[in-house]
Design goal:
The model has no long low-confidence stretch (mean pLDDT 93). With 199 residues, this protein is of the alpha/beta class. It has helices at residues 18-30, 54-65, 76-79, 86-96, 109-113, 121-127, 165-173, 184-192, and strands at 5-11, 35-40, 71-73, 102-108, 129-133, 153-156. β1 (5-11), α1 and β2 (35-40) form a beta-alpha-beta unit. It has a single domain (5-161), classed as 3-Layer(aba) Sandwich (Rossmann fold), CATH 3.40.50.620. A 6-stranded parallel beta sheet has the order 3-2-1-4-5-6. α2 (54-65) packs antiparallel against α8 (184-192) and α4 packs parallel to α6 (121-127). The structure holds adenosine-5'-triphosphate (ATP). Adenosine-5'-triphosphate binds next to α1, β4, α5 and α7.
């Protein structure tokens, strides 16, 4: 792999939606990344809710990113047994691609705010540069726990996008249209596999 500047974009992607795609595209452009690696989580250890089967979430991410050659999808967290820790993923990717000069961790403000609850977060901050987008109009704000811990941070000027996977699932379960919230290929996939018909 020739890439020097690589973004890591993890999430449960249950399902992937338009704000995910907008955020990853913005990171590519804003940070001049060579590549963004999308990593659907296996068992998100902080989410109590049962997720849609990993093979569906993975297939939907693949469908959503198919038209951007700098997007790559990696199933390492799905294949790995046990909880999905981002630190393990970063270490695995660094071993696989030792030529990368800078790793960026792309995330929304909600995840940035919760970062100090992540497994091995201090070590993680030494391994990556954070690329944080505000969510639904709120500017990224530095969480209290991170104030005294030096870390590299870029903010991504993402316009407010009132989309979440929760909203997609809720609308679908209520029999409402989701075509404005997800890429067309993802809407077809959800229809075809009759996903999210109940909450
Ligand atoms: P859920 O509603 O199920 O909690 P979600 O929409 O937050 O899901 P995730 O897969 O958990 O989606 O998110 C993956 C990453 O994308 C996280 O870093 C999250 O902050 C970010 N993200 C998701 N939606 C947005 C949005 N509308 N604006 C900015 N960042 C977002």
């Amino acid at each position: 792999m020739e890439a020097r500047r690589v973004g890591i974009f993890g999430g449960s992607f249950d399902p992937v939606h338009n704000a995910h795609v907008a955020l990853a595209r913005l990171a590519l452009a804003h940070l001049a990344l060579d590549r963004v690696v999308w990593i659907p989580a296996g068992q998100p250890w902080q989410k109590a809710r049962r997720l849609a089967p990993a093979e569906h979430r993975l297939a939907m991410v693949r469908a959503a990113v198919a038209d951007e050659p700098r997007f790559e999808v990696d199933d390492c967290e799905i294949r790995r047994a046990g909880p999905s820790y981002t630190l393990d993923t970063v270490k695995e990717l660094r071993e696989r691609w030792p030529g990368v000069q800078e790793w960026f961790l792309i995330l929304g403000q909600d995840q940035y705010a919760a970062l100090s609850t992540w497994h091995g977060w201090r070590e993680l901050l030494q391994c990556v540069t954070l690329a944080v987008a505000g969510r639904e109009g709120c500017e990224p704000a530095q969480p209290e726990a991170l104030r005294s811990v030096p870390h590299r941070l870029h903010t991504l000027p993402l316009p407010p996008l009132p989309v979440s996977s929760t909203l997609v699932r809720q609308r679908r379960a209520a029999g409402l249209d989701i075509v404005a919230l997800v890429p067309p290929a993802v809407a077809s996939y959800i229809d075809c596999h009759r996903l999210y018909l109940t909450e």
